[in-house]
Structures are given as C-alpha cells and as structure tokens.
Amino acid sequence: MKFLLVFDFDHTIVDENSDTWIVKCAPEKKLPNGLRNSYRPGHWTEYMGRVFVYLGDNGVKEDEMKRTMTTIPFTAGMVDLLGFIGKNKELFDCIIVSDSNTVFIDWILKAADFHKVFDEVFTNPAAFSSTGYLTVQNFHAHHCAKCPKNLCKRKVLKEFLDKQLEQGVSYTQIVYIGDGGNDLCPVVFLKKDDIAMPRQGYTLEKKISQLAQDLHPVECSVLVWSSATEIMSYLKVLIKE
Questions:
Q1: What positions does UniProt annotate as the active site of this protein (predicted)?
Q2: Residue 196 has what pLDDT?
Q3: pTM here?
Q4: Annotated binding residues for substrate, as ranges?
Q5: Which residues are annotated as a binding site?
Q6: CA angle at residue 114 from 220 to 50, to 5 degrees?
Q7: Catalytic residue among 10, 93, 183, 194
Q8: Is 10 an annotated catalytic residue?
Q9: Is 28 left (phi over 0), alpha (psi -120 to 50) or beta?
C-alpha cells in the first residue's frame, strides 16, 4: 500500500520560477533585451544556457548564485506538507519532475533540509565548469510533439513506474501536483484511481478545464489547490482510508 507523489518544482514547491529568480544576480538585476528576446518556444534550456554564460561573463560566482537561490520562498503551506510527507515516508514515495536544473533544486532542498523527502529528482543536469560558469543540458530526447524538446514529463513518469514495477513496487494511487502547461502530458497519462492536483489559477488548471469543455476530460480525479495545506488534508484522508 504505497502512494506515489509526483511534484513539479517551480510555482509548485517554490512560489517562483527558479530560472527567472537567478536574474537577481545579474547587473542591475536584469538581462539585456537582446538576451531576453533570444528565447524560442520549446527551447528554454538553451536560453538558460545563454543566461548562465552572461552571468559568468559578468563575474557572478557560484557562492553568490547559491545565496540568491536559497532565498526563494516556498509556496504557502509547502513547508508543512513536506514535513508531513517526511514523517510518513513508509507510505509515500516522492519524486520531482521539473524543467529547472539539478544545481538549483539541490541547493534549495538541502538549505531547507527537504532533500531526504524526495526519492528521486528528474530535471535538467547542471554543473559548474572549470572556469566557474554554470552549464545546463537537456534532460533527455523524446518524440512527444506536445512537450518542450528537452523534457517530456509523461515519458519520465512512465519510465519511473516501469522501473519500480520491475523491482516489485506498484502504487495504490499516483498524486500529481503541478501548475504548468508541461504538466498536462503526464496528467493525461494518469488512470481513474489517480489524482491530479493543479494549482489554482495556473496554466495546468486552465488546460484541464479546457479539455473537459471540449468533452475530452482527463481520466483521473482533479483536485485544485491554492495552499499546500489543502494537499496535506487530502493526503491525511488518503492514509486513513
């Protein structure tokens, strides 16, 4: 009897976008227009690579980045929720699937002592080069036309579930907690016993509603949240059942 909790990171665990938060380290806390306008839809990771080069060129070092990233606020109620999950790890497996990067997520979770709550983190690999520049790569290659080219969260989730099944682990229910457009692909993959928890007022909630209006509703249950204490209340009911 185990439950799988799948979390997005930006605007879900933390209340901001970690990739745009790092801009606080830039000169005058902003990027030049040419760099800002160089983003192409579906190619966010390449864009962030250019941002990191700009920061490196301007002498922004690892310790300054780390100090800045660890000031990012958690979403309302999230600290309590992660504390609750941490105390009930025998019931919950917990993973992050995010379009952020390994360095940012690692810094933020370790600073708040939440890294032990999560069994695995699936995100774009990042590292500091010998010259002290932060570099980032695409998480994987995939053939999903609906997702950004560096990450299909459905593929990540499916591969994780297959790997767990090979080790004899299957889940009573999957709870998917997210906010963004790229969370729709894995949500559509969920089965009727599973539950999607889109954050209120964000893209994922709007896209799920749109599917229902188009008479193609998602198969799983949907529970909207605005504070993570609502997610915690649901999980408490779940483990009592």
A1: 8 (nucleophile), 10 (proton donor)
A2: 97
A3: 0.95
A4: 19, 99
A5: 8, 10, 19, 99, 179
A6: 85
A7: 10
A8: yes
A9: left
